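Re: the request from the purification team.
They wanted to know what the chain is likely to look like in 3D before they choose a buffer screen. I agreed to run a prediction and write the result into the notebook, where they can find it.
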Amino acid sequence: MGDMIRCLVDTTGDVFAGDAADSYAEVAAQFGLDEQVCEEYRFDLETRRLLVDRGTPAGLRTVRAYFDAHLGSPEKLMTFVVDGSLPKESLTSLLAIDRRAGYRDACAAIDKTYTDECAPANGPCLESGCALEGEVCLQPLVRAGTAPRKEYAAAWIRLFADTGNRIEAWKN
């Protein structure tokens, strides 16, 4: 299975989706929930399938409505990711194989821009200068917060907007 969006439904029927969470525990921690009393659902981005790990019919209806509202069409997916809610690896997997390298190159260019702007603005991290001259440094990306993920999303949306650039599950 491909990339998943994990979500919990609490006892009041509210849906909490964890952006790029690797576990339900991460979702629970992100929203201050008790994982043990929540229903657990996963949405497989690559197949557009909703999977139930622990749920009820009412919870399933609620989660289906949530995912339909946020991911029910390619246009809704593009709106969902515009704020950087999914990592670039997840976005990459939704592109046709022959478009992935171009997207990775666009992301690398974004990363390089942050690295190149880092030393003049903040000084090098090391006394001897930048340890990664000519390479990409993680430090400026971390300092930038969600900005790089928003830029990755924007680059992805430009590609994904063309139906021919999508994997089969997202063609329509």
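For the purification team: Residues 97-122 form the longest helix (26 residues).
Please add any questions underneath this entry.
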